[in-house]
């Protein structure tokens, strides 16, 4: 029998396969060793990075908190201030009325609404014909009464002489001595004098003149009109002085009465640049029952001759300054909310609020009664959404 011999190529293939298996096993072992070495190193590096992470910058922390603008306000002494509004009114307001009846025959050129008049200037004239006649008649009556009185005085003297010559011892009666007749003649004479005086006044009243320096506010008569006694002819305002009545609460008056100033400053509400110095002339000795306020009267002399004329009817703002008050906290007007709260930032940078006692206001600031002597980081413009205790980032602004 012939032996079967395998080809040499099969043996080579088998040897090659065995070599590949060994190579793959060696590679797996190498990868395993590498993994066992790398993983601990990676874990250590991660832990190191976490433990040594740099702290975030302070600005990054603040960026996550709402920023609020605060002003450091320290309690101190400030002069008490009051700002009150009032209307300039004339010292005198006159309703011109006719004292005699008659037809208007002349109207003065100055008697026009808005015109300025001086004391003694003619405003209008009423027909004086009847009043001249009345005066003439009264003078005639006076002359007759004077003549009758003189006659009666002579007769009374003659009667007394006759009684003495008669030798009668009993006292003479008044009628014998003509005393009643003399008294009657005297009374008629005095009545005639009064009638002349009255007729003279009525005649003078036909010429209506300005009783003081003033301004014509209105005129209600015209040439040819017939006016009756008491009919209104116009309105005059005096211009020697204008007055402003300022209303004070009892609390405001209580803080002023110890050091009431002699003068106050008035500012025009319509014209921000106009100011006047006014004298304090009086204080109402009563309290208005409807408003519960007390009036303080101030006065500006010669208002039309000021650098800027202060006209009756103008609205003004009065600034009154009193004595210094201690323990006062000055804050911006915007710092106090409509609900009366004052917001501030405490030492822990948290929002807090209080309801302060408002003492007075002025110069775009509000002056409060300080609760302590410590400074307060006052929030300049508090928002409606603020909540006490909220953490914030205060941004300080220089105090005004």
From TrEMBL:
Region (Disordered): 1-20
InterPro entries, alphabetized: BSH_CzcB-like, RND_pump_MFP
GO molecular function, one term: efflux transmembrane transporter activity
Biased composition (Polar residues): 9-20
Stretches of the chain forming a coiled coil according to its record: 135-202
UniProtKB keywords: Coiled coil
Xref: Pfam families: BSH_CzcB
Protein name, UniProt field: Membrane-fusion protein
Higher taxonomy: Bacteria, Pseudomonadati, Pseudomonadota, Gammaproteobacteria, Oceanospirillales
């Amino acid at each position: 029998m012939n032996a079967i011999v395998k080809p040499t190529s099969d043996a080579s293939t088998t040897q090659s396969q065995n070599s590949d298996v060994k190579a793959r096993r060696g590679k797996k072992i190498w990868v395993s060793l590498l993994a066992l070495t790398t993983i601990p190193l990676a874990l250590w590096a991660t832990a190191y990075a976490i433990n040594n992470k740099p702290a975030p910058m302070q600005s990054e922390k603040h960026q996550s908190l709402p920023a609020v603008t605060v002003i450091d306000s320290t309690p101190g002494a400030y002069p008490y201030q009051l700002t009150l509004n009032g209307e300039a009114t004339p010292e005198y307001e006159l309703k011109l009325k006719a004292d005699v009846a008659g037809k208007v025959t002349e109207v003065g050129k100055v008697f026009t609404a808005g015109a300025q008049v001086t004391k003694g200037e003619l405003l209008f004239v009423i027909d004086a014909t009847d009043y001249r006649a009345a005066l003439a008649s009264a003078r005639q009556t006076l002359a007759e009464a004077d003549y009758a009185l003189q006659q009666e005085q002579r007769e009374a003297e003659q009667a007394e002489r006759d009684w003495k010559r008669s030798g009668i011892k009993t006292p003479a009666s008044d009628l014998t001595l003509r005393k009643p007749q003399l008294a009657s003649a005297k009374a008629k004479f005095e009545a005639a004098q009064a009638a002349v005086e009255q007729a003279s006044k009525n005649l003078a009243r036909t010429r209506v003149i300005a009783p003081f320096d003033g301004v014509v506010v209105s005129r209600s008569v015209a040439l040819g009109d017939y006016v009756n006694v008491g009919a209104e002819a116009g309105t005059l305002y005096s211009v020697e002085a204008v007055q402003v009545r300022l209303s004070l609460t009892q609390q405001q008056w209580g803080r002023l009465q110890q050091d009431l100033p002699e003068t106050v400053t008035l500012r025009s509400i319509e014209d921000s640049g106009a100011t006047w110095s006014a004298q304090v002339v009086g204080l109402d000795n009563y309290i208005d029952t409807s408003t519960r306020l007390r009036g303080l009267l101030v006065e500006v002399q010669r208002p039309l001759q000021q650098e800027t004329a202060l006209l009756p009817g103008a609205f003004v703002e009065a600034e009154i300054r009193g004595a210094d008050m201690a323990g006062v906290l000055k804050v911006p007007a915007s710092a106090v909310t409509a609900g009366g709260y004052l917001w501030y930032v405490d030492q822990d940078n948290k929002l807090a609020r209080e309801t302060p006692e408002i003492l007075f206001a002025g110069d775009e600031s509000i002056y409060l009664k300080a609760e302590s002597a410590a400074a307060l980081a006052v929030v300049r413009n508090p928002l409606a959404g603020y909540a006490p205790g909220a953490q914030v980032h205060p941004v300080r602004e220089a105090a005004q």
